[in-house]
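User: Structure tokens for both sequences below?

Assistant:
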Amino acid sequence: MIYEFSADEVLQMAVDVEVDGIEFYGKAEEMVDDVELKKTLKFLGDQEVAHKEKFLELKRALSASAKEQTVWDPESELCSYLGMMAELHVFKSKGGPRNLLAKVEGEEDVLDMAIRFEKDSILFFYSLSEMVEDEEARKTIGALIKEEQNHLKTLAVKLLALRK
């Protein structure tokens, strides 16, 4: 098949990723004792809420035809890759945030999972940005990628400090 996703469907995948992040950070915050880590997880959860809203704004801004039209991908490479990334995202492939957090044995595990979530999100959003034709939407997604990269950096610093 030449076409697989509409712009609306692609953006909904991004919203779903953010919803998983909101759930993960909210539940993870409840599981840790360290006050500073709780604050970090709360901040990251709030960021995921803001990202979800930005993707919803992009969806609302789509024209009626963009909601029906499909992404131009004559070889189905980008759509296949994006679909695979969505399905293999850490929470989708492991049964969701609650399922993963049920296996947590400490703060290091929480940070490891959060890092995997952020890495998967960066890859997914980068792929998404390649599929978006609207320049303003592409800039918005690029800004969200930078925020996710900052989240990753914050989490990595926390994990390295915890391992010392």
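Moving on to the next sequence.
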Amino acid sequence: MNPFLLSSYRGARMLCMVMFCWLLVLTPATYLWGNHPNVLFIAVDDLRCDLGCYGQKTVRSPHIDQLAARSTLFSNAYCAQAVCNPSRASLLTGLRPDKLRVWDLPTHFRETTPDAITLPQWFKQNGYHTECIGKIFHNWRQDSFRGDAQSWSVPEVMHYNSHGNDTPEVAGQLPPNLSKTPRTEMRDVPDEAYFDGRIARLGQQALHRLRTNQQPFFLAIGFWKPHAPFNAPKKYWDMIDHDLVSLPDNPNPPADVPELALHDGREILRGFNLKSGQRLDTESVRQLRHGYYAGISY
């Protein structure tokens, strides 16, 4: 079991593969359409409850903490399945993975349940303009679908890719990677060097464009971080004191949990040449956690 993934039983129990936020955006269109407020839907990939609003003291998350202070904050939420594709398909259709028959990454829910009505599709059918920027539905293993075109009024943007392709794009020479730990990258580059910086910019532009639209909107913004690899720009690493990044409280699997239910951490451990039964050294664990926290702040 990967010690990076476990901090305590409570931390493991509340592990969320995807975190979603709802915002009712009050714009001129809100008042025009009366009881049809605009909706901003935000998905964050692999975000656990490591936020200030959940008592995490190391991570810098001021904006989402401010949102949580004036919102409904869920403190006992569960993920339908701790795998990206089934959890997203489940939440966005309202159907359990067993009902959808989607338990892996390659199977698209339209293959098993073609008549499912997704959340954005429901808004679209009820007079909304629906738009997707970034990762909302799982994608890169599903070439025949590339997202879910039925859900959106316009083609999806920056949704179809893989985390391994999120390499920095900069003008001129690429700054060096200051982190030597596998599956981490700390380069002094601007936000828009990576997917999420460009998604944030496109999302901001969409909000400005849609706020005067003569139709209520459902805008979905999907961020790829803090999913591995942990490669947020250096300034986000610098927000966190490395010496304050703690090791897991309990690196062992929960008691009485069958081995089948545990994750082997291959997404993180693939960069390390570990022998059978060997664990990561403590500094590698601390650096991985530092990079994960930097991705949250990013």
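User: Anything stand out in the second?

Assistant: The chain is about 30% helix and 10% strand.
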